[in-house]
Design goal:
Blueprint lengths: L1 E8 L3 H12 L8 E9 L5 H5 L6 E5 L5 H6 L9 E5 L3 E3 L5 H9 L3 E10 L3 E7 L5 E4 L12 E2 L7 E3 L3 E5 L14 E7 L7 E3 L5 E3 L5 E4 L10 E3 L2 E3 L5 E3 L15 E2 L7 E5 H7 L11 H11 L3 E12 L10 H18 L2 H20 L3 H14 L3 H13 L6 H6 L3 E2 L5
Parallel strand pairs: 1-2, 1-4, 2-3, 6-21
Antiparallel strand pairs: 4-20, 5-21, 6-16, 6-20, 7-11, 7-13, 8-10, 8-12, 9-11, 12-15, 13-14, 17-18, 19-21, 19-22
Helix pairs in contact: 7-8, 7-9, 7-10, 8-9
């Protein structure tokens, strides 16, 4: 098979070198071939000169940003592969990432899409808490810089409060991408809202330290034992028409998400799709700016009878939100816009109404709790979605007039099931 690997990049030069170098190390069969395609999505950071160092890459250059969906769709005219793999620029594939997906495509015509197991690219030092029931501790900055955005809790959230037997995961810089550490990272414990009797914290060496008073600090001694965290093991869709990452923030342990499964949707950070099925589905919908276009495409692939398979032996490391900074106003705005458009495209009248109510209620709560910037960003996203409703509702009408329409509620409710390859 020939695999066209489409990589959109907007001012992502610092990610492209590790991405393309890893791609060069891909193991494929003697009769297989990779066709790397980079869509320079309005970059002004020297991406064009960088790509000149990779003669095997087909480059499409656009003077202004197109958005994620349109940038990927721009490769439609020059991609010649039997399979099209959409790959984010802030990823680094493992050498064997394409071996099993190609086997699945070759042996099972029912499968139209295969998704990798995505791991956060950072290695993490776990800091584990043991707190009395009902007590929470608020965590402060670790690095006093951009790397703080990559600090995660066992619940999957960043910073904020920790409770019970929770864990804070402190990231180590990724070589070639993050600047090296200037000082030893220190986890700040700011305040609690309960008793500290018996409270303790243990760092990577397993030694428990009592927490007797706050504020306090916990030095992260390096080198230390590290863990890897899952970023995505397939996508889920809930009853509110909201999508998310299965397994996000969980430790990547043996046996965890280790089985090939049929899933409702796979992540656009790395998704491989048969070209024939992709053309029939129409590639990515362009009414999104970024986010949810992958789930939308997956629904249309499945509506035509195709299976989507999560393939855990295909491992891809993902820096995550390399272009669109996590929990920034732009991030919040884009998620709010795209999630509402997705609900308007596929949800029931009740789900759409609830989506509107949830967004208005969320904005109210954010304002009451002094986080006006997130309320403003979410409201901007919701309002900016309104002009695109004409298109999503027109597509709903088209679906209803066709002899075969997308059974959205059934597809949204579908869970995971073991994948069995036909004999």
């Amino acid at each position: 098979m020939k695999i066209s690997v489409v990589i959109p990049s907007s001012n992502g030069a610092r990610f492209l070198v590790p991405c393309l170098e890893a791609l060069r190390k891909t193991r494929i069969g003697a009769g297989d071939a990779l066709e790397p395609i980079v869509v320079d999505n309005g970059s002004s950071d020297g991406t064009a000169s960088l790509l000149a160092q990779y003669p095997e890459v087909k480059a499409l250059v656009f003077p202004k940003p197109l958005g994620f969906a349109r940038a990927n769709n721009a490769a439609r005219e020059i991609a010649t592969g039997d399979v099209v793999c959409f790959l984010n620029n802030d990823t680094r594939v493992e050498p064997g990432w394409m071996e099993r997906p190609l086997q699945i495509f070759a042996r099972d015509a029912r499968v139209t899409g295969v998704g990798s197991k995505l791991l956060f690219m950072h290695e993490y030092v776990p800091v584990r808490f043991s707190l009395p029931q009902g007590t929470r501790i608020r965590i402060g900055s670790v690095f006093r810089g951009p790397l703080d955005e990559k600090v995660r809790r066992s619940s999957g959230a960043c910073n904020g409060w920790i409770r019970d037997q929770g864990t804070v995961y402190v990231p180590l810089p990724v070589p070639q991408i993050d600047p090296p550490l200037a000082t030893v990272p220190v986890l700040q414990l700011l305040e609690s809202d309960g008793s500290l009797r018996g409270a303790a914290v243990s760092t990577a060496d397993g030694t428990a330290h009592r927490i007797e008073r706050l504020p306090a600090i916990v030095p992260i001694e390096l080198p230390a034992r590290t863990v890897r965290l899952i970023q995505n093991a397939g996508n889920f869709l809930n009853e509110r028409c909201e999508g998310g990452d299965v397994g996000s923030g969980e430790e990547d342990q043996p046996g965890r998400y280790a089985t090939e499964e049929i899933v409702p949707a796979i992540c656009g950070a790395e998704m491989s799709v048969r070209r024939e099925a992709l053309d029939a589905a129409g590639w990515f919908p362009d009414y999104y700016r970024v986010y949810y276009e992958d789930v939308d495409l997956c629904l249309r692939l499945r509506s035509r009878g195709g299976l989507l398979v999560f393939c855990p032996s295909s491992v891809v490391n993902h820096y995550h939100t390399g272009t669109n900074r996590e929990w920034s106003p732009r991030f919040v705005e884009n998620v709010a816009r795209s999630s509402f458009l997705f609900a308007s495209r596929y949800g029931s009248a009740r789900q759409i109404t609830r989506s509107i109510q949830d967004r208005l209620g969320h904005a109210r709560n954010e304002l009451l709790h002094g986080r006006g910037w997130t309320a403003a960003a979410g409201t901007r996203g919701f309002l900016s979605a309104l002009p695109a409703l004409r298109k999503t509702f027109a597509l709903r009408i088209q679906d209803s007039l066709r002899s075969t329409r997308i059974p959205a509620p059934a597809l949204l409710a579908a869970g995971r099931s073991p994948y069995q390859q036909p004999r």
